[in-house]
Each structure stands twice: as structure tokens, then as C-alpha cells.
Amino acid sequence: MQVTETSTEGLKRELKIVITASELAEKLDAYLEDLKGRAQIRGFRPGKVPKAHLKKLYGKSAMAEIVNTVIGETSNKALEERSEKAAMQPQIKLSDEDAEKILSGDLDLAYDLSYEIVPEFELAPVDGIAIERPVVEVADSEVEERLTQIAEGARSYVAREEGAAAQNGDRLTISYLGKIDGEPFEGGADDRAAIFLGQGRFIPGFEEQLIGLKVGDKKVIEVTFPEDYQAKHLAGKPATFDIEVFEVAAPGELKLDDDWAKTLGMDSLDALKDIVKQQIESQNGGQTRQKVKRQLLDALDAQYSFELPATLVEQEFNAIWGQVEAEMKAAGKTFEDEDTTEEKARADYRKIAERRVRLGLVLSKFGEREKVQVNEQELQRALIERARQFPGQEKAVFDFYRRDANALASLQAPVFEEKVVDVLLGLIKVTDKTVTKEELFKDDEEPAV
């Protein structure tokens, strides 16, 4: 194998790799020798097929297989000998015009290998990093509120006496037809829908205008869609709804006691309270983890500035931008609705892509230094969690990831990252800070990375 560097620019590398025809011929000879002992061809005894005959029958197909194997082996070997790590799968360019001669054994195998290397940088000390871990104490009132929500979901309703007017808290069964400028609009109609007065699940002003209605009543109500309504073609527009009432039902008694807890499979109300408190603590803990991780990543990002592989940045940007476009299309929004332009949005999201790539490289290097590994059990848990996202298709998901090494690596990457974060949190100063629930769940001003 002969390797010649043909171009170097920043992180970009281009190599010319040549494997002589004689080297390929030796590999073909060994291939045919092995095939000779296994081939079963009519007219020849096992193991007695002349090699020249095998070459005539299988020479080109065998050489094609050899060439593919050799390209894979030599490209990897070239990077190893140069002590370089490719940021992404290297690109291989082989002349189509030469392919026939190479397969016939009349020409050396020569191909171009282009790639970007992972940049070299020194890891900065982390012992000077100090972050605050926001924690929330779960109050008894929050547990009671969550219990009430659970009970509300299973509350029974009893039809009111004939002629009774609907009150706040009642459940109405109605049919409605929404119109804008006198014309029905998509998604604005339902038949015998359950409306819970006072829960604020509908457009502001909708539920309030149903109070006082009786079974059999028909009414036209007027509302205005909020300016920030998710369906932009309806946002801010006035609308009317034709209403017909079929039932008015009063809420049954809400009693939080041991008997009610037993209907949910618990031994007692106290046992249910413990479970609910644990669930709230788990939810808070997940948010605390995200806040802590964000602070850590911000601190790390401030420590590093080095050239990034353009291919990695472009790949990350395309993934982010594709998600942005899909979300905006689903919401019916434009960049103008977000007080920006596509050009500015692209620039902002490219910065996010660069940050993610930079931090990914930093975390990867820390992981190598600390010898962080993702074991089979952890990878299996990640695969199971992924399969759960596709109910009824679990087997197909398992088969897909087991067949595709790159897809499986995409599951391994976030597990590896979280383990590296755990290691780093053990190396820096972390102090707890009690905050309110609102503070804990307040969105960061910038998109999380």
C-alpha cells in the first residue's frame, strides 16, 4: 500500500492510496485456493477444479469483493498510521473508467480518500467550575393538589333535574358548530361533546357563555380566538358557535379517603400520597438534572475555542433546521410571526449547531480520559426505551437497530454523554439552592443544548 497526501487544508485531508495489481493478484490467488476446496462444479471432483477454471467463472466477482474489502482495510490503516481520527465516514472516490481494468487485474487499485479530522485540543481543568443545583421541596399542598387532579379525572357526574340551569363546575353535553364570517371552519365542530364548565379548556369566553343553559336550549355565542392561538389562520379572529345542549350534569362528591385510594389499587390514602410525592420528586429531579447539565455545558463551552469539522456542523445544523421547519409548518407559523427572518434564524441555529459539535467533542475527550464505557445492559435499556415510543412496532424497532450499526451508535451516544456528565459533576463544586417550582421550570432564554 502506498499513501500520498494530496491536500491538507485546516482539518480537511485528501489522500491518494494505491494497491498494486500484483498485491490484488496475490489476494485473488488465495481466494481461489480457498474456493477450490469448497467449490462443487459439474464434471470435477471436489477439490480438483483447476484454479484457471475457477478464475474464469468467478474471477471478476471475487476481485470485486476483494477490492471492497481492501478499500475498507487500507483506508482504516492509512488513518491509523497517520494517527488521525476522522470526524465522519471518509469519502472514497474511485474512477469508474478504471474499474473494469482493476477487476481484470490489469491496473493498480488507486483511489482518493477525503475526510476531516477530529481537531486536537487540550482539556481544560474543571476543578474551578462551580454550579448551583436548584432543588424544590415538595409541599403537602402540592401532593393534595395532585390527588385532587387524579380524583377529578375519575369524578362521577349526575344529570340535574329537568329544567335545571348549568352552573360552574357542571358537565354539559353539547353539539357545536363554529363559523368565521358565517362560514364553518375546519376543526370547529363536534357532536355531543363533553364540556366541563370552569376548567378553561376552550377559547376564553366559551365556557362562561354556557352557564345558565338548560337541556334543549340552542344558542349562538360569540368569541375571539387569542392572538397567539396555535392555528395561525384562526389567531385573533372573531367567531360564532351554534350551540345545542343535550345534558346538564352536576359533579358528584369528591372524597379523598382510604376507600377512594383502594379503588386505585392502593392500601390507603397515605400510601397513595407517598407514591404521588415520589412522582413529583422524580419530575422535579429530571428538571433539576437539566438545569445542572445546562450550567455545566455553559461553563465548558466558555473554556474552549477551536476549529470545528465543517461536515459535523453541517450535519447537526441540518438536523436542527429540519426540526424547526417541521414544527413551524405544523403550527402554521412563519419567521415573521416569530419576529425574525429566515436568514437570522439560520445564523442563530448554526451557532447552536456549532456549540453542540464543540461540546460533543469536549465531552467525548473527557470520556476517553476517564475511560467511560457504555455497557451492554445500558445500551439494551436505551433500545427498550426507544421501542416503547412505537407501540405495536417494538419488534420492527429492535430489528432495525440490531441491523444498523450507525443507528445503534445513535442510541449509545446520549447514554455515553450522560455518563460523562455524571463524572464531571463529581469533579466540580456543586451546591444546592432551594428554589420555587416556578423558578425550577422556568424556560432558559436560549435553546438548550
Automatic annotation (TrEMBL):
InterPro entries: PPIase_dom_sf, PPIase_FKBP_dom, Trig_fac, Trigger_fac_C, Trigger_fac_C_sf, Trigger_fac_ribosome-bd_bac, Trigger_fac_ribosome-bd_sf, Trigger_fact/SurA_dom_sf. One of its GO terms (molecular function) is ribosome binding. Pfam families: FKBP_C, Trigger_C, Trigger_N. One of its GO terms (cellular component) is cytoplasm. Keywords: Cell cycle, Cell division, Chaperone, Cytoplasm, Isomerase, Rotamase. Residues 169-248 form the PPIase FKBP-type domain. Coiled coil: none annotated. It catalyses: [protein]-peptidylproline (omega=180) = [protein]-peptidylproline (omega=0). Gene3D superfamilies: 3.10.50.40, Trigger factor ribosome-binding domain, Trigger factor, C-terminal domain. It is found in: Cytoplasm. Its EC number is 5.2.1.8. One of its GO terms (biological process) is protein transport. Involved in protein export. Acts as a chaperone by maintaining the newly synthesized protein in an open conformation. Functions as a peptidyl-prolyl cis-trans isomerase. PANTHER family: TRIGGER FACTOR CHAPERONE AND PEPTIDYL-PROLYL CIS/TRANS ISOMERASE, TRIGGER FACTOR-LIKE PROTEIN TIG, CHLOROPLASTIC. Consists of 3 domains; the N-terminus binds the ribosome, the middle domain has PPIase activity, while the C-terminus has intrinsic chaperone activity on its own. Belongs to the FKBP-type PPIase family. Tig subfamily. This is Trigger factor. It comes from Pleomorphomonas diazotrophica. The lineage of its organism: Bacteria, Pseudomonadati, Pseudomonadota, Alphaproteobacteria, Hyphomicrobiales.
